[in-house]
Amino acid sequence: MRLMPALLCCALAAPAYAGCKGLKVEDAWIPQAPPVAPVLAGYARLRNDAGKPLHIDAVSGADFGRVELHQMSMENGMMQMRPLKGLDLPAHGSVILADGGKHLMLMDPRHPFKAGDSTTLTFSCGKDSLRAGFVVREAAP
Amino acid sequence: MSNRTLSYGLLAAFAVLLGIVAGMVVLRPGSVQLQSGTLLQQPRAVPEFSLQGEGGKPFIKADLAGHWSLIYVGYTHCPDVCPTTLAQLKAVEKGLGADAAKIRFIFLSIDPARDTPDALAQYTHYFSPDFLAVTGPDPQLQALGAALGYVYQKVPGETPQAYLMDHSSALILIDPKAQLAGYLTPPFKTEALVEDLRQTMEKAS
């Protein structure tokens, strides 16, 4: 019984998330859109190579006024989009950001983007962060 | 099981199958079988409406007459599905070849607060200079939606300007008499859309 408080203390104190350690952003791209597009999409494969779960709570980029994570879904013929409160990546797991599913919403671009242009986005995991390059393309890599 | 029971069983199964096939034939008399949607058995009249095209120019029911129209309902603050669908419609326009002259592609924005007619036109023409960009006051868009069968709804976002619009995903087909002819529904496949449109326009002419 004397062990109980000690175990409880450690279970609570154990860090569930380990910052961005293990996070890999692969095949990151932005589908080419009209120069006047007020919003662009960001797609990638997010991999967690670490043995601990990882939580991305925000994404930002100097080239955009605001970046949000969204989930697209089709409900009874209705196209719906909902903002997500971050993303959970299980240990050694991955999440795909792609057309018709979860994706980055890159709002208020500071300048028009054309195929071949690139930009850097910052993924925040608590106090830690990871920068990743995204390339504008006509089709998926 | 005796042979006779087996025969009766087979006979019953055959009768059920025949019934299903007959039902399918009876329920769809003379309709064009589309790969990616449905045509109404009786085209439905569209009421008068008053919207705006490029430069704020009026866009009214008469603008739908004399050619086929394919209406896509969306908005420019939609980064995912809307540009993908418009790019696909551009491929459909190309796939139709000479038949593309018989049909107009219309991007109808249900977000007039952010999509001014000119910004919408610039956005739309990026995909094809032939595509029409149309929007208008909310009550007009709602009324036309009731007639054409599309719905939309504003969903609050994380900031007042970052709101989202839920909207119907079907493409709405209008015939040259400005009547609602049918719907093409996702997932869209370019070849199937081209084939469906070509067949529908051919059969009606």
Report on the structure:
The complex is a heterodimer of chains A (141) and B (205). By secondary structure, chain A is mainly beta. Chain A has a single domain (16-135), classed as Immunoglobulin-like (Sandwich). Chain A has one helix and eleven strands; from the N terminus they run αβββββββββββ. Chain A has one helix spanning 3-13, and strands spanning 23-31, 39-48, 54-56, 58-60, 64-75, 78-83, 87-89, 94-97, 102-109, 118-125, 128-137. In chain A, strands 1, 2, 4, 5, 6, 8, 9, 10 and 11 form a nine-stranded mixed beta sheet that branches. In chain A, strands 3-7 form a two-stranded antiparallel sheet. The longest helix of chain A is centred in the N-terminal third of the chain and has 11 residues, at 3-13. Chain A starts with a helix and ends with a strand. Chain B is globular, with a radius of gyration of 21 Å. Chain B folds into two domains: 1-30; 31-204, Glutaredoxin (3-Layer(aba) Sandwich), CATH 3.40.30. Chain B starts with a helix and ends with a helix.
